Amino acid sequence: MRCGATLRRTFASGDIVFSTGGSGATPDDHTRQCAAAALGVPLELHPEAAKLIQERIRDMYQPKDGSPLDLDSPENRHRLNMGTYPQGAAIIPNGYNKIPGFSIRHHHFVPGFPVMAWPMIEWVLDTYYVHLHHTTPHAEKSLLVFELPESRVTPLMEKIERDFPGVRVFSLPSVGDAERGGVYARHHIDLGVKGEPEAVAAAFVKLREGVHLLGGDIVEPEAAAAAAAAGKPRS
User: For 172-183, what is each residue's pLDDT tens digit?
Assistant: First the structure.
């Protein structure tokens, strides 16, 4: 299998590798198996991953007839496959839905969904590789933009990169995240700038002004997160 051959090569290289997707529990997910085969080790259920998966099952359980939760049902036992990793793996926390990823031999495996993968990769970088990044001052600021397609903001992004050398503009469109709730449930773009702190501050002012001129609706990420949290029912 191509995945297994690639992993055998990268495990032998000593490189730092991030893999996204293919780590679920359906028949089309083969990443965990390929990683174990490439290392020549068995798969085993990670005890901490099992605990987190069962917490997620409890969180999501909504009985229609008042029946108690059965963690040993075939369906729930099958879900534990998401915590079955190559022997010797460590977990990567997943703040979105608790289902962890795993790390082994400088290879880090996370879900394919950006809303999960991005913070999980950030955690790996800050936990294991802080000596390899943030060696120079760096800042990042972003907005949630509504009512504008990416095609409308692309010229603005290009202009800011021309006007502010060293600043990079990023754009992550979302079709909406109903589980996260609040404004995140609407179609939006996570639009921002990153680079040297002073240049980022100036570029961000121009980014905000430009979005306003284009007629976009803006929400600050901090305000959106607070509103989403306030709208969730308390357990």
Answer: 888 877 777 777
- Separation of alpha carbons 5 and 24, rounded Å: 20
What's this model's pTM, rounded to 2 decimal places?
Answer: 0.63
Express each pLDDT in 141-180 by its tens digit. 999 999 899 999 999 999 999 999 989 999 988 887 777 7
Tokens encoding 145:
């933009």
Of residues 225, 207, 227, 121, the one with CA closest to residue 167: 207
Query: Is 109 buried (19+), middle (13-18) or exposed (0-12) by CB count in 10 A?
Result: buried
Give the closest residue to 221 by CA, choosing from 175, 189, 176.
189
What count of other Cβ atoms lies within 10 Å of the Cβ of residue 211?
22
Asked whether 191 and 142 are in contact (CB, 8 A), the reply is yes
Q: Which tokens sit at 160? A: 């800011």
